[in-house]
Amino acid sequence: MKILKEFTDFINRGNVIDLAVGVIIGAAFGKIVSSLVADIITPLLGIIVGGVNLSKLAVVIGEQQGKEVVLSYGKFLQSGFDFLVTAAALFFIIRLVNHFDRLRKIQLKKDQEAAEAAPVSIPEEIMLLREIRDSLKQGRTQQ
Q: What are phi and psi of 20, to 5 degrees?
């Protein structure tokens, strides 16, 4: 029973739930970025560079047990290129999100300034009470 209580205490901590949500959203966002790179950016880059595929580059460096030992450096280069394209896509997505966040904050600040600058309408009862207060003050100073 003690282990069950410790486990429920652990699960009920806000950090665990927040972490789980972050991991799930991160995985979904990763799929979006991967699709952007694989389905949109890479084909466009393929057209620009003439369909060059680095992953086929390799060098035979020897033979072992009747099989060629191949150094597939092209796969490494292609992985590095894919990483750079993915990192650039992610950079521009985050930059765009930050830009929209700045615009939102500017708009909120403008709205707040407009609300502060707007004249406050005072109810008539308050105005009458102020007039009574002021006239009472004047009556005391005249005596």
A: -60, -45
